[in-house]
Input
Amino acid sequence: MNVYPFIEAEKQGDHNVKRACELLEVSRSAYYAHRASGPSARAQRDAELTAKIIDIHDDSSQTYGSPRVHHELLDQGERCSRKRVARLMRAADRHGRMPRRWKTTTIADPAAPHRPDLIGRDFAIDPDRPAALNTRWCGDITYVYTWQGWLYLATVIDLASRRVVGWAVADHLRTDLIAEALTDAANRRRPLPGVLFHSDRGCQYTSTQYANLARDLGVTLSVGRRGQCWDNAVAESFFATLKTELIHRRAWPTRKAATSAIFNYIEGWYNTRRRHSTLNYLSPATFESTPATTHEQVA
Output
């Protein structure tokens, strides 16, 4: 056990160094020799790591916790444990941001035709054997408050890579909003006919207009059960992350400002750089570029 910090604390408190050394069975000469020798190699290493941790944390807009910071350090060639990273983050008063609890906002249409749940909460990813891209998508709508009124965001997410492959915003909740998001995804990814799109039972997703668009795009529709947010957990999780890391951190005077920030978050951060725990702490773009994923996509 290193007793020198205790003696140093006594000295800084204008207490008797001689008495402290006697109680801790350390000679005064050894204490002063240690004091003159400067910080230990471990302390120097901690200082180096802390500086890099702060840079990584700031680069993530101060959203990363110790697991993501740790993986970022590993990619930079730094060898250290996650527990050490967590300790240094606590010492530097750096913390990750935690999502809030989900709130159900779906408005179902009781007269809508019945569609089956073709996902059955099977959202799992095996990083060593990734599923084919562009075979299973999911999506939902969320609300963003601005001083001009509500802004509504609709998304389409590839379940194989958690990448947001299509999205749209509007000042209304008409079916046109989710139609634009699905069209955006289809134009970007060019999936083969039969790609599955899973959603909740919101009236927009069960509308005839949306069913006709899905048919034209070669998309098979799947819906979860009424009132079961976990049936669309991936879409809900993305919105929780978006709101924690971006939306709830400031006020939005205009819809245009919120839209610009959402664009930068999705296209410049979440899809391309943000490390995803489900993907073994790779970003969606990096995960999609792995040889196994590319092979499955081509096959």
In short: The chain has three domains: 3-36, 42-92, 130-289. The two ends are 59 Å apart (CA to CA). Residues 138 and 198 are 4 Å apart (CA to CA). Residues 295-299 have pLDDT under 50 and may be disordered.
